[in-house]
Amino acid sequence: MSNSNNRPIVAVVGRPNVGKSTLFNKLAGKRISIVEDTPGVTRDRIFTEVEWLDRYFTLIDTGGIEPDNGDIILSKMRNQAMLAMDMAHVIMFVVDGKAGLTAADKEVAQILRKTSKPVILVVNKIDNINQFDNIYDFYELGLGTPFAISSANGMGLGDLLDEVIAFFPKGLNTEYDEDIIKIAITGKPNAGKSSIVNKMLGEERVIVSPIAGTTRDAVDTYLERDGQQFMLIDTAGIRKKSKIYETVEKYSVIRSMAAVDRADVVMIVIDAAEGITEQDTKVAGIAHDEGKGCIFVVNKWDLIEKDNKTLGNYTKEIREKFPFMMYAPVLFVSAKTNQRMNKILETAEFVANENAKRVSTSALNDVIGEAVMLNQPPSDKGKRLKIYYGSQTGVKPPKFTLFINDKQLTHFSYQRYLENKIRENFGFEGTPIHFEYREKRR
């Protein structure tokens, strides 16, 4: 096994409207849309996994990190550049080939020149050969040879990606290993995440891999238990405040988002004494939306005065705060006293398997047929929803496609009813379930 199993991180920086998001979406291979601001849901997804020539890396679009707080563009860009310098192994600095060189570009270039990270200057919007001369002004930035690309039509991206992967530090894991269960340990600073990791490791032989060349001190830790390999992605380790972040907590959320994106199972660690925080809700919402297996781990349970109702009341409070995650197991543990610590990896492995579970089409349709008989689908203006059949069309998370007569007749409450019936029959404990509807005319 490699001594350093962290995935390389590549950050995209640049001022607004230079085409960062277009480049991000093109490299991600799909359109990653901005979703509505709803409680517990991140405004936009800023991390994605990219594959090039069988090598994998995590791409960050820094444009989505800073909220729209009315600051001047320059200070926002400076924050983006600083954040990228802190988190990334390679930085792509995107400029606008049509608009030409700006004072803001020069300001950010000055910051980026001071970093020890490789910086690749990307001149976007060079949509045809006649515009190629536009790149020469950007030599003034002192960041080496500019790469001319067009995010919109995909021109020049192959050469750019060749350059990106050439700069990855040695020892980073750019391969994809399906056998390892990756567990992100998230939660507020001081909830006891590191203590839980250390206790889970016990006397196991582990490989600890600090990320080379970065100021952050998060580590990926590998361990093997009963023949199953695990990778623990610890989001702890914020030792000092940095002037570029408004709060440590905000940076912690960003770090947690990156960890969730890489994980199979997300452990949301809650401090039993402090209770559920806004950050817990935010991270849980991201994990749910991304279709990850989820476990609530209430740590420091030894500090709570208990009677025969305490555990039930605390579980009820979690269910009320996270009504969209009734499927997630809740563990009450103490890293300090070792209480129930042995259940964490066991539960994580179980949840990872549930997240990857498949059921046969015939068994699924038996359950759907019985559910429809017990409770007829909704109707509107005399027209009733008909479900002809369903099949499982994906895993991680489990995804079910239902073939129906009219999408307009679908209703969230009936989908929840069907989801409950599917869970009653097949389990899927600890994992969200996604539905897709397709109209099938008869």
TrEMBL record:
GO biological process entries: ribosome biogenesis
This protein's UniProt keywords: GTP-binding, Nucleotide-binding, Repeat, Ribosome biogenesis
Binding site for GTP 1: 14-21, 61-65, 124-127
Keyword Repeat: yes
Pfam families: KH_dom-like, MMR_HSR1
Gene3D superfamilies according to UniProt: 3.30.300.20, P-loop containing nucleotide triphosphate hydrolases
InterPro entries membership: G_ENGA (IPR031166), GTP-bd (IPR006073), GTPase_Der (IPR016484), KH_dom-like (IPR032859), KH_dom-like_a/b (IPR015946), P-loop_NTPase (IPR027417), Small_GTP-bd (IPR005225)
Record keyword Oxidoreductase present: no
Domain EngA-type G: residue ranges: 8-172, 181-356
UniProt-annotated binding residues for GTP 2: 187-194, 234-238, 299-302
Annotated GO MF terms: GTP binding; ribosome binding
Primary role: GTPase that plays an essential role in the late steps of ribosome biogenesis.
Similarity comment text for this entry: Belongs to the TRAFAC class TrmE-Era-EngA-EngB-Septin-like GTPase superfamily. EngA (Der) GTPase family.
Self-association and partners: Associates with the 50S ribosomal subunit.
UniProt cross-references to PANTHER family, sorted A to Z: GTPASE DER (PTHR43834)
Protein name in the entry: GTPase Der
Species: Romboutsia hominis
Source species taxonomy: Bacteria, Bacillati, Bacillota, Clostridia, Peptostreptococcales
Gene (UniProt): der
